[in-house]
Amino acid sequence: MYSLNRRRFLQLAGCAAGTSALGALGARPALAAETFPARPLALVVPYPAGGASDTSARIFGESISKSVRQQVVVENYGGGTGLIGANKVLAAPADGYTFFHGSINEVFLAPLLNPAARYKPQDFMLAAPISDANIVLMARNGLGADSLDKFLDLAKQSKAKPLTYATVGIDSIYHLMGDALAARLGAPLLHVPYKGGAPALQGLAGGEVDFAILPYQSSFDAMQQQGRLRILTSFSRALPPALKHIPLISQSRQIPDFEYTIGGGYFVKAGTPAERVTVLRKAIGEALSKPDILGKLEAEGRTVAKPIDSQAQANQAFDQYMTRVTQLIRSVGRKTNA
Predict the structure, then answer these.
(1) According to the UniProt entry, where is the signal peptide (predicted)?
(2) What phi and psi values does residue 138 have, to the nearest 5 degrees?
(3) Which one of 15, 114, 174, 298 is most buried, counting C-beta atoms within 10 A?
(4) Is 70 a member of any domain?
């Protein structure tokens, strides 16, 4: 009896040990899955392919993919002045696998001005700022203005039939700049919203509108050489070397202080684990430190941000964006939803 019971005990013990070993082996993949990122990342761009945001995101996406050793898939969601793309990010889990190529348009202006935006800026967290886009004013071919001041004179003379202008959408910074410009000139300007920069550019080149206010892209120069449009000014205080051929707003006799840029960065859904945000921030910083990427971004009209290494710095940049947006809204006499 003793021998039989002892044999049975050893058999049970062996089974238990085997089960433990299998359990330990089974636990390893689960632990490995906790390493971030363990699968491809989605980089959401809130405008159609071909625009300034899309071009910039694809430059970053390739570098970030190499840094984190996972594929970064750029996903374009145009429409609603960025609302559709922003909502896509906020509908996803706060796990870092979906991040946002955002700007003050979608993260700040939309929820502050558009009642259809069911979110607030604080629903996003800035992982890292990436650049300021340089905004330009371009006139259609045949408008009859080869300088900004001549364009402004033409706008003042066209009160009976206001000049029309294209932007990426209603309540974007470009739309508010148009409102502010109209107020400065004392002349009406008619806003024509498009679903993104690429459609707005096509509208301008096709003669559907008289001018456009858009973030600069290198393709604008080729279109100017082809006689399809004319770049009249950049609203920036200074420009990257690649853009030195574009007149600055400070050269205008009439509105030399009408300066604007649009800040942007990579955002995640609020509540994303800090350690995962740190991984993304490090990868973004590595991209910003690469001379070839710096050159590509500057050639696309970006004033590139310095890499940051803490959430405190990111939060400070977030607050600065909020301040700039609030000042712009007040300058055109608009009220916020808050």
Answers:
(1) 1-32
(2) -125, 140
(3) 174
(4) yes
